[in-house]
Design a protein that fits this description.
alpha/beta; Rossmann fold; Threonyl-tRNA Synthetase, Chain A, domain 2; 2 domains; nine-stranded mixed β-sheet; four-stranded antiparallel β-sheet; 9 helices; 13 strands; binds magnesium ion
Length: 282
């Protein structure tokens, strides 16, 4: 391997939100604020990467004073502020504010698959797109606001499974064969495109790399099992300790940190350590 001078390395940090940059209980990001500011002033982009929707992410990104691209719905789409790069990435579409890369599937395509599949196999689930807010509230116990929010997705369809486990396994196999992935959340089975937080992060890193000769290196940070794909593709993986569950297991990663503290406090501690070590080697 060619030795790369430190000054030729550009770091990029991808980070989960809930339980990572945001406290598991209070949703506060305050313990991470000073570190986030320091990264911004030293030119290290922080990419927010979550299962949340575009609308949810836009609000949080504002609260975090973040101006960088962000990744929504478990790797389904990457939103790049227009003008962020010297020109539009080749495969991106655009709307008024963003260049949008879509490694995932549009919800309309997922719904078309569900319609077709249900004709042959039935639909032993509550399909959000077809349900009223009242139906969702009645079936899930969510509040009206939570139910509406859960239904405002652009790249995935939450299903409340009402059939048995073998029907579910058969459905998952048919969805995979049709080119979709599934993700079991706490409450819902999500149908989405064949993407994940890691694939989207790699695509965005490649996009950054197209515009410069400096070598990009990735730090990824998260607290849950759906962060593992992103942690696997990172040069440095940071597992943020959770007050609610044990750290997910990531065997054989060459550069793994599990934080001592939980949430944003643990995140800030790990990031500070990485850059402190980095400075002593330069
Ligand atoms: Mg999380």
């Amino acid at each position: 391997m060619t030795k790369i001078a430190r000054q030729d390395i550009q770091w990029l940090i991808a980070s989960d939100l809930d339980g990572t940059l945001l406290d598991h209980f209070s949703y506060s990001h305050q313990p991470a604020d000073a570190t986030l500011e320091k990264l911004e002033s030293s030119g290290v982009p922080v990419i927010l990467n979550s299962s949340k929707t575009r609308d949810e992410m836009v609000a949080l990104r504002g609260a975090l004073n973040n101006r960088h691209p962000f990744i929504v719905e478990n790797g389904s789409a990457i939103f790049i502020p227009k003008g962020y790069f010297p020109h539009k990435p080749e495969l991106a579409r655009e709307d008024a504010e963003y260049w949008i890369l879509e490694p995932g599937a549009r919800r309309a395509d997922i719904l078309a698959f569900l319609r077709q599949d249900s004709e042959a196999h039935g639909a032993p689930y509550l399909n959000f797109a077809a349900a009223s807010t009242k139906d969702i509230v009645d079936a899930t116990g969510l509040t009206r606001i939570e139910a509406k929010k859960a239904n405002q997705r652009n790249y995935s369809e939450p299903l409340l499974w009402q059939g048995d486990e073998s029907q579910k396994q058969a459905f998952v196999a048919r969805a995979n064969a049709a080119g979709f992935a599934t993700l079991q959340g706490g409450r819902f089975l999500h149908v989405l495109g064949q993407t994940d937080k890691g694939r989207a992060t790699q695509l965005l890193k490649k996009t950054y790399q197209q515009y410069t000769d400096r070598e990009y290196r990735l730090i990824a940070s998260g607290d849950g099992p759906n962060d593992l794909d992103m942690l696997k593709v990172a040069d440095v993986a940071v597992i943020v300790r959770s007050p609610a569950h044990p750290p997910p297991s990531l065997p054989h990663h060459p550069s793994l940190i599990v934080t001592r503290e939980t949430g944003p406090k643990g995140w800030a501690e790990a990031i500070k350590d990485i850059f402190a070590t980095d400075a002593t080697h330069s």
